[in-house]
Fold this sequence. Notes:
Blueprint: H1 3-6, E1 12-18, H2 26-39, E2 43-49, H3 51-54, H4 61-77, E3 86-89, H5 95-104, H6 109-113, H7 116-124, H8 131-145, E4 151-153, H9 159-176, E5 184-186, H10 221-230, H11 246-259, H12 263-269, H13 275-301, H14 304-333
Parallel strand pairs: 1-2, 2-3, 4-5
The structure holds ligand 1.
Amino acid sequence: MNSGDIVQQRKKIIFSGIQPSGVLTLGNYLGAMRNWTKLQDEADCLYCVVDLHAITVRQVPAELRRHTYETLALLVASGLDPDKNILFVQSHVPAHTQLAWVLNCFSMFGELSRMTQFKEKSAKHSDNINAGLFTYPTLMAADILLYQTDLVPVGQDQKQHLELARDIAIRFNNIYGETFRVPEGYIPQTGAKIMSLADPTKKMSKSDENENAVISLLDPRDVIIRKFKRAVTDSGNEIRRGEGKEGIGNLMTIYSCFTGKTDEEIEREFAGKGYGEFKMAVAEVTADGLKPIQDKFAELMAEKTYLEEIMKTGAERAAKIAARTLSKVYRKVGFVQI
Length: 338
Ligand code: TYM
């Protein structure tokens, strides 16, 4: 017998996180969550509500608490089975902050200064450029590296942070020997960057002050229709991608995510039809796509104790795995173990 015959194929480990800093958006769903549900049958998946990350920007405590429940409920409502996946809240597993401290000592001031998100958030919150905002990516690296993660499914905007996590892992491994698995990103071909409906050159973001810019996963059908009707496009009338047609391109991406149609198929379907008709079609598929999630969400929010059970079980399962990596790291850097 060939030795390869008895080696069992190890399941891949998947980790990703989402901030409970507001109601989740269509961008979060199409760029990240939708992929998470696709992976749950073929891999060991951990999905984390990253409340520690959320406080790098000032939060109202009662709202943060509510958003944490809501985010978890939306993950389950979008199709993540709490038995198949480890779903948990970051602050419930102290190993995240413990490893983050160690990794801070292996992250360079220069590389953290180059992070686009740090630059953008510091410009936006110039009265609160705190050290947590600066070291945010090392906590994210700790999240990922604690679980010996193979794949990290995220939207385009997290690619730079992921590359930093890889650099930190490689740096640590080079000094202390093989400790962390070096993770790969998993970024969808369609939907990795959903743009604002009010300014299609900007990413759709939870924190946008213009509510017409963002489709929230909890928006009712009439609100979704109104927002798409108002979506900024160009002065032309053809449904196709092109220079100066970022708004239409963004709507084509959203339509494609929900229907699975290619650009050519969408162009054919709407040839000779105007922007109004196309916007209405995008609104309809979005409202239809979100409806089952919204219904399930409403049920789950009425069952707080069920959500708390998920958090508790998830944290216990995650903590067990995390403890192995943390203890290895503590031993390698020279901490006395008692
Ligand atoms: P967050 O909470 O900003 O976003 C969660 C996920 O949604 C994706 N996303 C988008 N995708 C497409 N279009 C958009 N407009 C859009 N907006 C957001 C994000 O790329 C992300 O995948 N730092 C992370 C959270 C985090 C994390 C981690 C992720 C903490 N630790 C470890 C992966 C692994 C963040 O702020 O995501």
